[in-house]
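User: Here's a structure from my thesis project, written as structure tokens. My advisor, Dr. K., wants to see whether a designed sequence matches the one we expressed. Can you design one independently, without my sequence as a hint?
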């Protein structure tokens, strides 16, 4: 099975959501939408009853969002501007409607801006619930146009406004838990992960205890983020709650449940159960061309194929997913997010030079790049260089997953030589970390001989139980150092893409033509090719010569 294969359960091939009638699913979230709110709103606007119209929007926010269309936007548009300014929630609703209509998007942004200015103003006549909903919508709008960092301020203001609502007003906000989920998602994609987790917890606390609950997005994001961060035991607690009858199967599978499925798959991968991970990922129903969570989906799918022993398929599927996203998939931010996984897959394919190029080119200096480069150095047998990379991580406060990766690499490097006491300390620290978080997979991301030494050392230190009952094995090969391109050879290869002329390459690199000829022969031998075209094809496939692209 490959994840890009058409499957009507998990991808809307014609670019639209199937109707509730087409799904024949009693759990369809859209069956809980009150469609009578739209005609009521139109009637109130037609009668000039703007206070009542604004109150209707406030009390039925998500019902209206699920049933709006361009016609309703036009009706709001006909309200005199001087009047509409007094009812910013109606302006925000118009902005949301027009934001999804390409030729009306600029008008939608003007409504967003006007409503947001009213919400941020100190006007006492702006209802506090309206202010909270407008700020939440503004933060979500920035995220949906690909600028989540611009939503940080509105998101914080929205959370403060929501938190400050009196109990009676909180009860008047339709699907308050879902409002928190939208704000938290903006915070997450803006890099404010700790704030996002707090917001999701608040949203989960607002979920109704009985009847249909709209707060599943909070629970799914909590489970998924914790799993991706490497705190598997914490994630499993949320997963157990998500499996209960309070939530529906559609919630677990459609957009709100994306990170729940990511969490289930990630936990399965820690047990080396690729089949279960595939089943969880296959249960998702979404349009791969548009879903905003595509990076988490793509990397989890790639790790699933890696655990299944299909690194080449994993890399092809990952690159195919990115290509499907067009310019977004080629952006520097997307390439940075995918770089650690791409580099790992190249290592699994025996291409440490490609892995190193990806890390240097696509990741800015930071913990992930140092850990990735340490893994490459260890694979090349350069344990001293690996430890040097890891020194840059000391003192940082990374996620449990990155902490486990750094400690695993340090322990493996130290076990290669005789610093017994230091190595034992690193092994004991790793064992305690794996025990506390539930991680296992990180140990498999080493060459086979290192895995064998480290597992034996963990067993000797009292952590042998960590790998009981699972088909544990190394996911990386032993690297033939003689097949790795040197820095000078990589420079020649990059120059070869632009010109086939040896004398021009020699001039560019300030070396003799004989040196270039010698290096070309070595490049062809290491790549297993016999011509310039073949060498360039391999270089492109391994991302050795892809130029950096900016957002």
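Assistant: Designed independently from the structure alone:
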């Amino acid at each position: 099975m490959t994840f890009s294969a058409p499957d009507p359960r998990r991808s809307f091939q014609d670019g639209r959501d199937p109707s509730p009638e087409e799904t024949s699913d009693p759990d369809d979230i859209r069956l809980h939408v009150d469609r009578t709110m739209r005609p009521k709103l139109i009637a109130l606007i037609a009668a000039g009853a703007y206070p009542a119209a604004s109150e209707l929007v406030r009390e039925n926010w998500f019902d209206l969002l699920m049933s709006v269309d361009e016609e309703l936007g036009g009706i709001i548009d006909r309200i005199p501007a001087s009047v509409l300014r007094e009812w910013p929630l109606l302006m925000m609703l118009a902005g949301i409607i027009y934001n999804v209509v390409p030729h009306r998007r600029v008008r939608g942004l003007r409504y967003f801006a006007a409503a947001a200015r009213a919400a941020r103003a100190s006007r006492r006549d702006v209802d506090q619930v309206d202010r909270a909903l407008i700020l939440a919508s503004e933060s979500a709008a920035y995220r949906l146009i690909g600028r989540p960092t611009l939503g940080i301020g509105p998101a914080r203001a929205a959370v403060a406004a929501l938190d400050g609502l009196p109990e009676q007003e909180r009860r008047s906000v339709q699907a308050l838990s879902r409002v928190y989920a939208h704000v938290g998602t903006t915070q997450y994609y803006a890099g404010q992960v700790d704030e996002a987790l707090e917001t999701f917890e608040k949203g989960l606390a607002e979920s109704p205890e009985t009847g249909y609950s709209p707060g599943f997005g909070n629970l799914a994001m909590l489970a998924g983020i914790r799993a991706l961060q490497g705190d598997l035991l914490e994630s499993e607690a949320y997963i157990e709650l998500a499996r209960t009858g309070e939530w529906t199967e559609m919630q677990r599978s459609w957009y709100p449940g994306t990170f729940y499925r990511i969490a289930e798959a990630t936990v399965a991968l820690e047990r080396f159960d690729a089949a279960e991970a595939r089943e969880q990922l296959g249960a998702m129903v979404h349009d791969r061309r548009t879903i905003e969570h595509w990076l988490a989906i793509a990397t989890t799918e790639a790790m699933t194929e890696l655990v299944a022993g299909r690194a080449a398929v994993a890399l092809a599927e990952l690159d195919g997913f990115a290509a499907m996203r067009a310019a977004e998939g080629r952006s520097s931010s997307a390439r940075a997010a995918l770089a650690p996984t791409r580099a790992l897959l190249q290592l699994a394919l025996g291409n440490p030079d490609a892995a190193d190029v990806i890390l240097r080119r696509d990741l800015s200096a930071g913990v992930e790049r140092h850990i990735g480069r340490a893994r490459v150095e260890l694979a090349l047998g350069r344990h001293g260089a690996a430890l040097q990379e890891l020194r840059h991580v000391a003192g940082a406060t990374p996620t449990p997953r990155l902490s486990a990766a750094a400690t695993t690499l340090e322990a493996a490097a130290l076990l290669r030589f005789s610093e017994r006491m230091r190595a034992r300390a690193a092994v004991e620290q790793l064992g305690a970390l794996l025990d506390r978080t539930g991680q296992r997979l990180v140990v498999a991301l080493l060459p086979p001989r290192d895995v064998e030494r480290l597992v034996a050392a963990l067993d000797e230190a009292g952590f042998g139980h960590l790998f009981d009952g699972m088909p544990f094995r190394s996911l990386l090969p032993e690297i033939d150092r003689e097949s790795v391109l040197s820095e000078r050879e990589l420079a020649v290869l990059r120059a070869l893409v632009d010109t086939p002329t040896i004398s021009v390459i020699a001039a560019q690199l300030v070396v003799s033509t004989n040196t270039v000829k010698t290096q070309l022969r070595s490049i062809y031998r290491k790549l297993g090719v016999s011509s310039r075209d073949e060498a360039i094809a391999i270089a492109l496939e391994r991302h050795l010569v892809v130029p950096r692209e900016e957002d």
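When you compare it with your expressed construct, this may help: Confidence is low (pLDDT under 50) at residues 1-17, 547-551.
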